[in-house]
């Protein structure tokens, strides 16, 4: 059973005691209706407490604040805590054990960390970290930053977190209040720490995590979609953490298929040379792996035309169903192969001189729209950017790759970034070590994916698209959608059975 540790990074945290009953409260909630009722009652406690503290202090906010602090008690929920409750509740419903910590308890406004041993113990006992916090200037709170710094200073914690799962929830005062940028920055920190990062699941269209609109205390309950993204994030981290737990006793003996797609290179093809050398090296280290390499830069990738219906029809994963059907198009030629992977490396070479750059990156990523909308054909793939960059190239393509791939309901791993100075590969050994780690993770996760029989529903939800939604409703009424989903399940099970027999 996977253990999810929920961390609240709000300065307004209410549940700061080590004896908090929050997790036992969550475990006692059976339905989403009960959850909403609980959130309403608990967030209202803080609002009522503030109004009560203000009586007689109408002319002095300072006195109101001091009175409020004096009456502080371990009950109620801030907006960030409420978002975290949603995620932990969903994880609990999926069969995970849950724990909770308030970062405000451990990182005071001034002075040294408090109760460090307790914090460390709960981190090393966890299989996944779910972090919820408010937006500050488009970024995470200082409490979350202090937590990250704390982890980096402890080798035992860093060692434990390698390959563990992270997901995030962010609360902002406005719909575009910095929730997504906060989650992106935090995601980058966690994967650089060695964790695997996930977002919310397909029920809320697989984005960066939970995104909530709530300014004043008690307002989270008004954001129905935001609450659903938090629940969705809890389900997602639960599912992937359970996959990660399955890997602990797995040794994959069959071929592991790692797909590499070279989407950007220099005109003189320096990248192609480096990536081919990498393939030769990795096959020597791990001869059991199967690496499929596509030099997409040499292919033709027709630009997405943003048609209203994507994909054009329902069907099984092996069937190509994009409206673009030109025979010389890369996706048309290789669809069946590119959706049949155990792990995925998106490769790019960065040049110092942009005039020397050849890139199909954005065109390719746009075209994966049909793969995402086809019920997330890349779901649960271990993915990573593999970027080789000339030292002063000043490009951010590894970030772009990660923020695009997480929308495919994938599992993000540490980016592989090689640096070239004056034609010399200056960190080749580091990239080699990280590559071996990626391959070994891919082997274990891929077997867990194959072994796991109760895969979650990954049906794409066309939120915000009226025409696509109407087509989906028509497919439901006609029975075509259910037939396609069942056919896809049978197809995947046959492939899984074959893989297990071949292993």
Rounded to the nearest angstrom, the radius of gyration is 24 Å
- In the CATH scheme, the class of the largest domain would be Alpha Beta
The counted number of beta strands is: 14
Q: Averaging pLDDT over every residue, what do you get?
A: 91
Strand content: 15-25%
Q: What is the CATH H-level superfamily of the largest domain?
A: Flavodoxin domain
Describe the structure.
This protein is an alpha/beta fold and 503 residues long. It folds into 2 domains: 3-247, Flavodoxin domain (Rossmann fold); 256-497, Flavodoxin domain (Rossmann fold, 3-Layer(aba) Sandwich). The protein has 18 helices and 14 strands. The protein has helices at 22-27, 32-53, 61-70, 79-93, 103-106, 116-124, 142-152, 155-161, 179-192, 224-247, 270-285, 330-338, 361-367, 369-373, 397-405, 428-451, 466-478, 480-502; strands at residues 3-8, 97-102, 128-134, 165-172, 196-197, 210-213, 256-266, 289-295, 343-350, 357-359, 382-390, 411-412, 416-421, 424-425. Strands 7, 8, 9, 10, 11, 12, 13 and 14 form an 8-stranded mixed sheet that branches. Strands 1, 2, 3, 4, 5 and 6 form a 6-stranded parallel sheet that branches. Helix 2 (32-53) packs antiparallel against helix 4 (79-93) and helix 4 (79-93) crosses helix 10 (224-247).
């Amino acid at each position: 059973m996977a253990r999810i540790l929920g961390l609240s990074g709000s300065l307004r945290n209410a549940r700061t005691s080590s004896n908090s009953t929050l997790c036992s409260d969550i475990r006692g909630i059976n339905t989403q209706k009960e959850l909403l009722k609980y959130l309403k009652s608990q967030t209202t406690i803080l609002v009522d407490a503030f109004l009560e503290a203000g009586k007689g202090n109408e002319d002095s906010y300072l006195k109101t604040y001091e009175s409020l602090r004096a009456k502080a008690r371990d009950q109620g929920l801030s907006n960030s805590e409420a978002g975290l409750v949603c995620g932990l509740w969903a994880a609990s419903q999926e069969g995970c054990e849950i724990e909770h910590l308030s970062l405000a308890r451990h990182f005071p406004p001034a002075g040294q960390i408090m109760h460090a041993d307790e914090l460390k113990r709960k981190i090393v006992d966890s299989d996944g970290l779910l972090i919820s916090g408010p937006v500050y200037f488009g970024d995470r709170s200082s409490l979350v930053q202090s937590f990250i710094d704390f982890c980096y200073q402890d080798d035992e914690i860093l060692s434990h977190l390698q390959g563990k799962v992270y997901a995030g929830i962010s609360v902002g005062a406005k719909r575009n209040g910095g929730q997504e940028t906060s989650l992106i920055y935090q995601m980058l920190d966690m994967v650089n720490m060695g964790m695997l990062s996930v977002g919310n699941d397909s029920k809320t269209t697989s984005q960066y995590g939970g995104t909530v609109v709530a300014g004043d205390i008690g307002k989270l309950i008004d954001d129905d979609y935001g609450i659903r993204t938090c629940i969705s994030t809890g389900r997602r981290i639960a599912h992937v953490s359970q996959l990660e737990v399955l890997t602990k006793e797995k040794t994959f003996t069959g071929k592991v298929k790692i797909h590499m797609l070279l989407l950007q290179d220099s005109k003189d093809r320096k990248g192609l040379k480096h990536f081919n050398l990498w393939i030769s090296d990795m096959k020597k280290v791990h001869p059991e792996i199967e690496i499929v390499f596509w030099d997409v830069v040499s292919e033709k990738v027709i630009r997405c035309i943003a048609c209203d219906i994507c994909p054009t029809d329902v069907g099984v994963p092996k069937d190509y169903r994009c409206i673009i059907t030109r025979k010389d198009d890369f996706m048309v030629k290789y669809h069946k192969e590119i959706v049949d992977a155990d792990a995925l490396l998106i490769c790019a070479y960065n040049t110092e001189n942009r005039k020397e750059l050849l890139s199909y990156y954005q065109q390719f990523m746009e075209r994966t729209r049909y793969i995402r909308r086809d019920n997330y054909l890349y779901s649960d793939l271990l993915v990573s950017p593999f970027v080789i960059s000339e030292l002063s190239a000043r490009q951010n393509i590894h970030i772009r790759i990660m923020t695009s791939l997480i929308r495919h309901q994938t599992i993000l791993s540490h980016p592989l970034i090689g640096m070239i100075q004056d034609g010399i590969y200056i960190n080749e050994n580091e990239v080699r070590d990280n590559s071996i780690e990626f391959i070994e993770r891919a082997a274990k996760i891929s077997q867990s994916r194959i072994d796991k029989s109760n895969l979650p529903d990954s049906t794409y939800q066309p939120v915000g698209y009226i025409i696509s939604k109407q087509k989906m409703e028509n497919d439901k009424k006609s029975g075509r959608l259910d037939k396609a989903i069942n056919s896809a399940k049978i197809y995947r099970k046959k492939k899984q059975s074959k893989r297990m027999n071949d292993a």
